[in-house]
Amino acid sequence: MGLVLIDINEAALKATADVCTAAGSKVVAFVGDVTRTETFERALKETLDAFGKVDFLINYAGGALKVAPIEEMDDAINRRIIDLNLTSTITKLPDFHPQFKQQGYGKIINVSECV
Fold it and tell me: How far apart (Å, rounded) are the C-alpha atoms in residues 16 and 102?
């Protein structure tokens, strides 16, 4: 099995990649911010270069980024939370749609977690 892993946290990315590699997966891993378009563009390129196709795109990024009373939350942190948890899963996915159409298949899985 082949995986392309992306994480903004380099140490966590390496730990995950090491576990997957030890389990027998071919892993391509890079540090990236999923709220940025170039991260998804790179993910598609890395996937096609390494494996020639994309079977699944699994969005498993998200978080609160800051846990505080609402009066302590400013517009910048609220925008970042919305971009990470919602916008990134909607606006960046069209990069993969042409590839799925060309292949005749492909699945997108969005994972959300509430704490």
Answer: 30
